[in-house]
Design goal:
Length: 64
């Protein structure tokens, strides 16, 4: 599931768009997966943690 999350973050596409790109496994559970992603982000923020995708976003923001 982390690859789907990374694809959403790094391409700046919604989960529904990413799921339409050949990820048929995900299409049936979009609401559950979106909830999982939201909980993951909330937990990271609450603990002050960053993952690799966050670092890529911060790097991109620094370049602009």
């Amino acid at each position: 599931m982390s690859d789907v999350y990374s694809r959403c973050v790094n391409t700046r596409h919604r989960l529904s768009e990413v799921a339409g790109d050949g990820l048929s496994v995900v299409r049936g559970a979009l609401e559950a997966i979106a909830g999982l992603f939201k909980a993951y982000v909330a937990r990271k923020r609450a603990k002050g943690n960053r993952d690799f995708d966050d670092l890529l976003l911060l790097w991109r923001a620094a370049l602009l």
